[in-house]
Amino acid sequence: MIIRLSDCPSQPWKNGLGSTREMAVHPPGAGSDDFLWRVSIAEVDSAAPFSRFPGIDRQIALLDGNGFTMTLDDGRIHPLTTPFAPFAFAGETKVAVNLVDGPTRDFNLMVRREHARGEVLVWRGPGTHEPDPSSVLVYCARSVIYSAEGPLHAGDAWRPSSASPVQLHLQHGALALVVRIERYAPGRSRT
C-alpha cells in the first residue's frame, strides 16, 4: 500500500507546540495512548520543546532544513544536523530544541517499549532491495522508488500488504528510511 504525505492531514503535537503528519500507526486508528508503533513527519519551525511520551522509544532523523540542537534532560546535547541519520532517545525525556537556521522537517518513529523494539535503517540507491518480514514501512526521502503498486516519490511511504516477498527498486539518487518492528513474544517484555 502506498501512502502519500499529501493525504496525511496536519495535526498538532501532543503538547500543542508544533505540527506533524501521521503516516502510519499500529494498530490502525490507535491514539497516542494505545499505539504499538507510529511513524510521522514533524514540522519544526520554532524552538518549542518536544512532547513527552512516557514508555515510548523514539528515533528521529532530519529530512529537510539545517536542523536543530536537542538538549536532553540527562545532559546530552545532540545536533540533529546530518540528514537521514537516525537518533534514538526515550520518549519521556525532556527535550529542548534550538533551530540552527530556519524551519526543518523530520522523520519520527515511536515504539511502545514494553511490547516491541523498533529501528530505522537507511537504504541508498540505486539498486533493488527486498524488505525483511519485520519491515513495516519504507519512506522515500529522495528521488523515486518503484514498487509493484507504483512509484513512490519523495515524501511517499510504502507498507507491505502481505507476507509475500517483494522487491523495491531505488533509482539513482534515491534514499529510503526503512522502519523495522520486532514484537516481543507473548508474556515477554523488555522490562
TrEMBL record:
It holds the Pfam family HutD. InterPro entries: RmlC-like_jellyroll, RmlC_Cupin_sf, Uncharacterised_HutD/Ves. SUPFAM superfamilies: RmlC-like cupins. This is HutD family protein.
